[in-house]
């Protein structure tokens, strides 16, 4: 009997706990559903970095970066540890990498936690708006004024990797704030098979398609084109944006924040038609999920006549161990040519690359070291050394230096492309805008949506995202 | 002789002991499960964003109505439903079939069972990656085999229909062993004398299966189906690795969509409501299922 009684007693608090939990749930639900929520802090804004670099620590210090996993990340770590240590022996550089698809999440989930395990975030140019609006990175406007020779750069490069609000294409607003400095410049290069289509690269987009068509017909087993089509990262979106630019289209009107009617105007429709109906048929079967690595693999295996890829990711194409095109770098270069993108109605090319941005949540000593590193990195002699180490600098003198131009066959392509660059939208809603574009372009490329429907859906959905700030509930769907 | 301890203090001591034993697990449960759930419930009524960090303004049931009326969500729900029904049905048929065949063997049953269990022990990310290579249209082993049979290449992961089928096939490859294991336990537990009696009555193989094996294993099998259905409903990893939701959004499941809402736009309030609704769906369906199971047992 005692046993039963004991069980009975013990079961009472269980019921109480159940009741209390249910009551808590009910109260919480009712309070939140009916009343105003609690403010957990004011609207964030980017904290300011000092104009002059405070005293640096002499204690051992690890300066951590976050980037995605690709050759430039390894090159940066090796270069910085070899060169920066000469001036700051107590500092060790660590470049933490994540898969490309997790890059945005890896940085912004840490920003959301208001605690980062990195001191310098290597942000895509389009991430700046989100980070600035949320107060995640330092405002370095005063620091740049006091420490960086801004006249040494193409103004648009300085703006693209640091300015917010976004600059007009090709310009920099000198009154706007800066939140980062260039780390790695980049754009697309056209990679073509000299042994299959001749030494001269096609000059117009239409000519490029014709040449690819003929090459594919003449060489069974080799596809005419290879380009990014995947629905992850910004793969398919950059491809469409590139064709859109070349055919005279616009992604949006930044002044009125209008996308619908701008993106899907006649030029935009023509670009989508060219991409889906003229370019896609020249690609390999099943290439609808290709990104950087897959395009490089197709080129290295001799399976594509013409390909498009980011310059910073093209170095491996010259490695005989990874290529079937030759047993030496010279043999490979006999077959592969690198050129700027063909033009059509305009000569625009996509702006790639990333800048360095100091985490607002990094310890003060590390923030100071980060600023010192950025100042050091932008020195003319260091930019040339970075170029020689395989990096793509942003200072004009480094871009025109023999160290850079002789370091790779595609570096001249980058130098020639700088005045032609156009970026996407640098707004806090970037991650959603690019996902909408990626998934719809990918759907059109893989036959899941008609090209016109896909473009109209992109315009409509992206416009809804830009207009959704006043909506109550359901944001993000 | 020492008198026994007074009853009251002993009861207290027992209670304290019970509390001491239970409290670590209870605290862990409260911290890791109950509190996040309550917090998510609170956030689900706000427009809170984890990155923006501003005030969490109440939006009432705005997030819930937006989710329930969203065409985007309906599309993902349909994809998830097709996936769950396809994958779980296939796994149940195959899993039970394999278990039935294994149960009839007298030699090598242990080795066979262990071999069949290997896929289940692998990480879904690893499974996703090697299937991604195997299903590659250009250099994948599946298309290579089809080619040797004179068949053309199939775009397994980049076409609308084949992509979802591929997901179902890969999930089936990995999780059929789970159903098999449960079914095997059920089959082993069927009393032998029932079969012996049926043999004496010269009952056919099919009759024995239909009237002895299936009815006795069925309740256990349904529990396995329940576990698998809940798991399949929450599918994220295989989609992320194999198709990333593509082509377009045609293989985006509800969980994958929640991930995008939560981490692409950091719409934490909406994502919380989305998650709560998914939990509710699982709870309601599980309750209905368990009632059916109880009725079955009573019957």
CATH architecture classification name of chain B = Orthogonal Bundle
CATH class of the largest domain in chain A: Alpha Beta
CATH superfamily of chain B: MetI-like
Count of discrete structural domains of chain A = 2
- How do the strands of the widest beta sheet of chain A line up side by side? 2-1-3-12-6
Walk me through this protein's architecture.
The complex is a heterodimer of chains A (477) and B (299). By secondary structure, chain A is of the alpha/beta class. Chain A has 19 helices and 13 strands. A 5-stranded mixed β-sheet of chain A has the order 2-1-3-12-6. Chain A is globular and about 65 Å long. Chain B has 299 residues and is an all-alpha fold. Chain B has a single domain (70-298), classed as MetI-like (MetI-like fold, Orthogonal Bundle), CATH 1.10.3720.10. In chain B, 75% of the residues lie in helices and 0% in strands. Chain B contains 12 helices and no strands. Chain B has helices at residues 7-43, 62-69, 71-103, 109-121, 124-134, 141-148, 160-189, 192-200, 205-233, 237-242, 254-263, 268-298. In chain B, helix 4 runs antiparallel to helix 7 (160-189) and helix 11 packs antiparallel against helix 12. At the A-B interface, helix 1, helix 3 and helix 18 of A face helix 1, helix 2, helix 11 and helix 12 of B. Chain A: Keywords: Signal, Transport. Chain A: Residues 1-33 form the signal peptide. Chain A: It comes from Verrucosispora sioxanthis. Chain A: Pfam families: SBP_bac_1 (PF01547).
């Amino acid at each position: 009997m005692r046993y039963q009684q004991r069980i009975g007693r013990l079961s009472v608090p269980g019921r109480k706990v159940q009741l209390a939990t249910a009551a808590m749930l009910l109260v919480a639900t009712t309070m939140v559903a009916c009343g105003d929520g609690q403010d957990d802090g004011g609207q964030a804004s980017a904290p300011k970095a000092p104009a002059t670099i405070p005293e640096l620590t002499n204690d051992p210090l690890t300066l951590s970066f976050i980037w995605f996993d690709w050759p430039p990340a390894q090159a940066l770590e090796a270069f910085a540890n070899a060169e920066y240590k000469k001036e700051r022996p107590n500092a060790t550089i660590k470049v933490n990498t994540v898969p490309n698809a997790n890059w945005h999440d890896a940085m912004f989930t840490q920003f959301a936690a208001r605690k980062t395990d990195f001191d310098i975030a290597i942000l895509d140019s389009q991430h700046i708006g989100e980070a600035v609006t949320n107060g995640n990175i330092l405002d370095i406007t005063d620091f740049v004024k006091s420490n960086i020779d801004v006249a040494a750069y193409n103004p648009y490069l300085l703006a693209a990797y640091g300015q917010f609000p976004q600059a007009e294409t090709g310009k920099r607003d000198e009154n706007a704030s800066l939140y980062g400095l260039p780390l790695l410049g980049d754009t697309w290069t056209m990679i073509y098979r000299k042994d299959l289509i001749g030494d001269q690269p096609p000059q117009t987009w239409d000519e490029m398609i014709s040449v690819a068509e003929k090459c594919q017909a003449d060489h069974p087993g080799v596809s005419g084109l290879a380009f990014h089509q995947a629905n992850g990262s910004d793969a398919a979106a950059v491809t469409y944006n590139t064709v859109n630019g070349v055919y005279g289209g616009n992604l949006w009107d930044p002044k009125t924040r209008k996308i619908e009617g701008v993106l899907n105007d006649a030029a935009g429709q023509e670009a989508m038609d060219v991409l889906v109906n003229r370019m896609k048929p020249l690609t390999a079967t099943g290439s609808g999920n290709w990104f950087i690595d897959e395009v490089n693999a197709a080129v290295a295996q001799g399976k594509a006549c013409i390909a498009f890829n980011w310059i910073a990711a093209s170095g491996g194409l010259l490695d005989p161990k990874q290529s079937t095109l030759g047993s030496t770098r010279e043999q490979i270069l006999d077959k592969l040519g690198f050129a700027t993108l063909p033009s059509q109605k305009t000569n625009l090319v996509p702006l790639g690359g990333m800048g360095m941005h100091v985490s607002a949540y990094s310890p003060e000593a590390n923030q100071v070291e980060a600023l010192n590193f950025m100042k050091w990195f932008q020195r003319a002699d260091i930019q040339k050394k970075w170029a020689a180490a395989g990096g793509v600098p942003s200072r004009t003198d480094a871009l025109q230096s023999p160290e850079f131009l002789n370091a790779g066959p595609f570096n001249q392509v980058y130098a020639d492309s700088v005045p032609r660059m156009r970026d996407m939208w640098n707004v806090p809603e970037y991650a959603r805008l690019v996902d909408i574009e990626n998934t719809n372009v990918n759907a059109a490329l893989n036959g899941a949506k008609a090209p016109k429907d896909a473009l109209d859906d992109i315009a409509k959905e992206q416009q809804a995202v830009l207009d959704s700030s006043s909506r109550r509930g359901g944001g993000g769907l | 002789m020492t008198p026994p301890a007074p009853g009251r203090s002993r009861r207290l001591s027992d209670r304290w002991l019970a509390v001491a034993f239970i409290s670590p697990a209870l605290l862990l449960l409260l911290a890791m499960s109950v509190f996040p759930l309550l917090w998510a419930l609170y956030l689900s009524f706000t427009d809170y964003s984890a990155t923006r960090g501003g005030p969490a303004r109440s939006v009432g049931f705005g997030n819930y109505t937006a989710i329930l009326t969203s065409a985007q969500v309906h599309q993902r729900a349909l994809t998830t439903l097709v996936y769950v029904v396809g994958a779980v049905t296939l796994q149940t048929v195959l899993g039970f079939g394999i278990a039935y065949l294994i149960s009839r063997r007298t030699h090598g049953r242990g080795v066979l069972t262990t071999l069949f269990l290997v896929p289940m022990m692998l990480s879904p990310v690893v499974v996703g990656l090697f299937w991604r290579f195997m299903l590659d249209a250009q250099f994948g082993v599946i298309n290579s085999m089809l080619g040797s049979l004179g068949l053309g290449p199939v775009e397994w992961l980049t076409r609308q229909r084949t992509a979802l089928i591929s997901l179902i096939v890969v999930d089936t490859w990995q999780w059929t062993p789970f159903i098999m294991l449960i079914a095997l336990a059920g089959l082993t537990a069927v009393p032998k004398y029932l079969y012996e009696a049926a043999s004496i009555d010269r009952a056919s193989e099919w009759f024995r299966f239909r009237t002895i094996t299936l009815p006795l294993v069925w309740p256990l099998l349904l529990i396995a189906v329940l576990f698998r259905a809940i798991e399949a409903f929450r599918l994220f990893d295989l989609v992320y690795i194999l198709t990333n939701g593509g082509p377009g959004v045609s293989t985006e499941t509800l969980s994958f969509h929640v991930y995008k809402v939560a981490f692409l736009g950091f719409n934490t309030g909406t994502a919380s409501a989305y998650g709560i609704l998914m939990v509710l769906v699982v709870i309601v369906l599980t309750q209905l299922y368990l009632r059916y199971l109880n009725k079955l047992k009573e019957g």
